[in-house]
Amino acid sequence: MEGSAELRKTGFQLTWNQLKWIAIISMIIDHTSKVLFPQIFYIEQLGMDIKTSYMIHRLLPAVGRIAFPIFAFGIAQGCRVTRSPKRYLLRLALFAVISEVPYNLALKDMTFNFPVFAFHNVFFTLLIGAVCCRLYAFFRSIGMAWVSFIFIFCLVVTAEFLGTDYGGLGVLFVLLPYFSYGNRRLQIALLGIMAVIFYMFYAQFSGGEHLFAWMNPRSLSVYTFTDTIGALVGVALLAFYNGQKGRGYHKWLFYAIYPAHLLLLYLLKFVVPY
Question: How far is CA 252 from CA 11, 34, 78, 91, in A?
Answer without folding.
Answer: 30, 25, 14, 9
